[in-house]
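Usage example:
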Amino acid sequence: MAGLAFDSLRAPARWIARDQPSVAAAPAVAEATETRTAGTVRFEAVSKTYLSAAGPVQALDRVDLDVPAGAIFGIIGRSGAGKSSLLRTVNRLEDPTSGRVLVDGEPIESLDTDGLVALRRRVGMIFQHFNLLSAKTVRGNVALPLKAAGLPKQEIAARVDEALRLVGLEGKADTYPSRLSGGQKQRVGIARALVSRPEILLCDEATSALDPETTLTILNLLRDINRRLGITIILITHEMSVIREICSDVVVLETGRVVETGPVWRVFGAPEHPTTRALLEPLSRGLPADLASRLQPHPTPGTATVLAITFAGQAAPDLSALAAAAGAPVRLLQAGIERIQGHAVGRMLVAVDAAGPDAEDRLRGLGGTIERIGYVAADD
Amino acid sequence: MSPQMIDRLWQAFLDTLVMVGVSAGIAVLAGIPLALFLVTSEPGGIFPAPKANRVVGTIVNGFRAVPFIVLLVALIPFTRLVTGTTIGVWAAIVPLSVSATPFFARIAEVSLREVDAGLIEAAQSIGCRRRHILLHVLLPEALPGILGGFTITVVSMIGASAMAGAVGAGGLGDVAIRYGYQRFDTTVMAAVIAVLIALVCLVQFTGDLAVRRLRAR
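Running the assembly step on the lines above writes:
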């Protein structure tokens, strides 16, 4: 909270400084590597109701959230869960029906036009369909925020070049967007969002229209921007893989309500809400089909016990300790342990020959959650 | 054709060019702001003014409903007020402009409406004020469509200008009626038609070329 108050004291000075043209274009490059103050966002009981032909639709239902400075904050949920509505309240593309949003500790609902324009220059946004102007070149698109801010031409040129360098599009300045690939278009979108030197970047399904490989390069770019420029990123997505790739924190929305929130490793390691589990389903490995077909519900002579050991943020599994605890031959059937933010998260499937309940207890002492799946013939 | 007739044809051609050119200029100057108003003053637009929108929309429809030949006569008092005369090329320019402006405004309106709402949102999100949105988003993005609409407007104005002979404005249509029809001079009639076809083709070709250039970006 102390940090929040500090931010709110400093914020107005920064807004003014941002709009004033700097003396020369030269410092622009030096500033690019300088760490900026990351922004914070706080949602207080934010609700949003739309009036549709079929009656009122509640898109957001008393959402309380804190986005800390410097986070890559993921908002995930199914279509229609209210992700977009929530994101768009941050730069007031939408206004909440009730509740309020604070950026850097300051409520934004009462800003006048000038205040709103100043806010939007501190909060950049990128879009699923890029939303680039087809009639302007890459340079023209990226320059628009500065042109609208009334900066002198020289400084605009220097800052546009700086932003294009940052996203790796130096050679494309005079190209029209229609000649670019999807990934390049999104890079232009990112450059356009960053050219005003924002402290918060909103990403509205920024990678949903891209192929998996391009998605990774864009996510890497976003992570790089977050680290090097210290910009807080809030992104919405319906793909858990995006969250796993770059987010530090995640919130799961379902019909406008927050159903689960926390650090990504914890939510991924031990999802509590059914919606979270359903969203994680595509990432998890199910029981292999060949194994499932031979699984027996009860032990018979000569069968091995199939155990699923789930790790949710503990230390990485110690394999020799595992074998010792089992006290019998252990075969690894399937494993999917990942490291998320330095935590081991995932599940492994093992077959333990003639494992008794005491073996299971000993295994449990290693730190994962043990679940007996069934029995298979030992020589399988 | 006699040299006098060729002279007369040439003069009529120039009259048509002046009538259509000046009226088209006025239609653009008045029609684009009108179209911008119609699009942006809608509920949910960037300058919402639903009542004014309905009033202006109705007036535009009113002018669109009156046939040009009727408008030509009905506007005579207004024409006298503006130009001080009711005959000649300048007297024809008034009703031509009044008729072409709402027509062009409606066509430009369609193009402006087709600008993706996401672009307007993106402009808002980067701190553009409403005038920036008009200047940097709506107009440039709709330009190819507006230009195509302008070509259609000019072609239909060339047609309408033929009726301007009714107020003694001259022009190609007037020559065709007076010499080609009333004096049974088939050669003049054919010549006028040929010139009109060439003119319309040229306008359409130039317009299409410009639109293609813009769209190729």
